[in-house]
Amino acid sequence: MLAPEIAFSGFVLMKMSALAAMAVLAATPVLAATTPFEWLESVDGEAAMDWVRAENARALPALTGDRRYPGLEAEALKILSAQDRIPTPAFHGKDIYNFWQDATNTRGLWRRTTLDSYRTDAPVWETVLDLDALARAENANWIWKGAECRPTTHDRCLVELSNGGKDAVEIREFDLKTKAFVEGGFRLPESKQTVEWLDADTLILTRDWGPGTTTESGYGFVVKTLRRGQPLAEAREVYRGGVKDVSVTPAVYRDSKGERVVVLQRGVDFFHTEHLLLTDKGVQATALPQRSTIQGFIDGKLVATLEESWTRPRIAGDKEPRTFASGALISISPLKALNPSSADIGGDIVISNACDPCTLFAPGPRQSIDQVAVTDNRVAAVVYDNVRGRLMSFEYRGEFGWRAETTDGLDNAAVAIVATADSGDGLFFTEEGFTTPTRLRYAPLKYAKATVVKTLPARFDASTHVVEQKEAVSKDGTKIPYFIVHPRGHRHDGQDPTLLHAYGGFQLSKTPVYDPVIGKLWLERGGTYVVANIRGGGEFGPAWHEAALKGNRQRAYDDYFAVAEDLIRRGITSPRRLGAYGRSNGGLLMGVALTQRPDLWNAVVVESPLLDMMRYHLLPAGASWIGEYGDPTKAEDAAWISAWSPLQAIRPGVKYPLAYITTSTKDDRVHPGHARKFAARLGEVGAPYLYFENTDGGHANAADPSANARRWAMHYTYLSRQLMD
User: Fold this and answer.
1) Each residue's pLDDT tens digit, 45-96
2) Is 624 a catalytic residue?
3) Is 92 tagged catalytic?
4) What does the angle CA 46 – CA 587 – CA 28 come to, to the nearest 5 degrees?
5) 4-78+459-724: what fold?
6) CA distance 333 to 356
């Protein structure tokens, strides 16, 4: 433990009931306006930064002064800057590009090689852009955010540069042949913006165009086109959403025959999107359901995943309405998506020359589609079956419909599509497990014949641990699966130092990935690691997510507590040895874990968190998440939100475990004020905590390998002292 005077062994559980929350709301109608420590929301304010500096000065000696810290930092840096890690590939034209960071190139190199060279053990790389040199030359804090390259010719790219890791980026046109920024080329000042190539000399984009052009969430809702050489002020407007939207963004899809479809995505809320097509006749709405995602364009057909069941409006030629299951992968021509009154022959959904729209794959009750990618002739999808991944591909055969093929792979693995070729059907994907190092495979055409191109060297000794999948039973009887990575032959005496991780939101799944930092800094030192697949995630499709939305949010938290209690019941660990970790929405989960069940943990890492849920909608990007959490300005929503909002739940007299709270000053997605106010409130009631705020890094909380190594070393120093000592 960090210090005897701030360590607690007994706990008192205090929770506000929904009825009590409603009573508070009745007495205080505008809770959002009276949040404690609101002055800490001033990101760079003098008083707020003085507070941050004082907290950092208190936390740093406690953590970096620990005897274990130097070794942990060195191990983390060795992993994060290793020269033999797999360079993540990206196709631009016929070449393979990679963005590379190491101890020498902390900001990174954008580099390229040929496909044949990349597939060798020692690729020959050519540097295209040195970000460290650029930052020095411009005296700027540039962080790489990616590049969008011109289609067909693949000779120029829109490079995105972030000041310190923020989501807002500056965009510049870059010539891949001359390896230089294009003089007089496209250059867009900093903004949260989405930009696509409409043609070789025209962009279609959304951004902050000036007062009255951004939503309450801080994203653009006005879409314009910008021609080469045209001043930004003269860009032509093609569509305007509204301030209450989350955002409006353009997407341009092309198939191998040269056909193009331009989609405008109007985010009604985080999970509901109106899909519109920009046509010669102007902007026209589609009949696609708002809970769906367009994934690509192949052979003249849009490929989409459905997050809700959809009955396509009955049209001429239909014998009966056509219904598609929630979670399904479908294809549909733009005409059929756009114009439900057009003629249609009807016929069998799967094997018919009238398969438009058509089901490619419909997951079962314990399955989900995690990723989709579209190449010239195939649709690839990562499908999870009870949180175990596999790659499937689908080939369109005209009158015979879509044929499915499953790629062989590792058992109990996480699978991820990494890159698809700009032409042809080449595809890179990875497979990995908790104790199985990542391997990168390449499939040129027949995905079942994919070959292993690269394998990550083992970063820790996994022979000491085994992986199991178990189930806990939540408060309402729902079975919650979880993975546990624990030492072989452990005694079930409740003494295993155990770290329990979960996310539980936004339909994001937690899968069995190989994490060398966890392996080296925790497992190899005798720790146990647990990943809980709680509701709110996407492990079992849209229904698993929807089960914990808004007024049902408490279910995700009950699921997490159920897994913790199951670990204790099985004798794997005990409250003295059990720690909790989560970031972003998972950081909100940590705030709830600390305030609702302080009796379960001796360590809680609260990273980049949402915590003041009565004001989250007023802080940057927060309004975009109302579809997930609810709207605090509405009495009904405010009642359930206030019942679990962590900041408001902190109470004097409760024995909380020592919490470690950390965030980034430059996080323009989840405002650092959440973490600051939570820590200040804990201090106000006399509860123990450590607070550290990184001044760079954005929402990822790390700007370079060195900063990231420090971040993880501080995490595991804290966890070691709380759970292993």
Assistant:
1) 999 999 999 999 999 999 999 999 999 999 999 999 999 999 999 999 999 9
2) no
3) no
4) 70
5) Rossmann fold (3.40.50)
6) 7
